[in-house]
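Allow me, if you will, to draw on your knowledge of protein folds for a short while. I have a record of one protein: its chain in single-letter code and its fold written as discrete structure tokens. I should value your view on which stretches of the chain appear to form regular backbone elements. Thank you for your consideration; the sequence and its tokens are set out here:
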Amino acid sequence: MFIAMNRFRIAKGSEAAFEQVWLSRDSHLDKVPGFVEFHLLKGPEAEDHTLYASHTIWASKAAFEDWTQSEAFRAAHKGAGDNKPLYLGPPQFEGFEVRQTVGGKK
């Protein structure tokens, strides 16, 4: 399993607009082999920004890398630069290979 995260510093006062961009977009993830789950996370607030992260879980690192080379990826990110005023700098990518998973009772 592989977890891919992007951290976003969103300018104070732009949180609702940022969330609307994400909530209204077609991610195309449901069409991608190896995709497991997506989360949009809202984190702590600083003086000039609020931290957000996109968090995707993939069956493997190879599945994630295939997604980044796919038409679905290009379609999902089309127009991403249109929202630059919401961001304080570019997103910061972090990728993790899962070494342990502990599940809760269902």
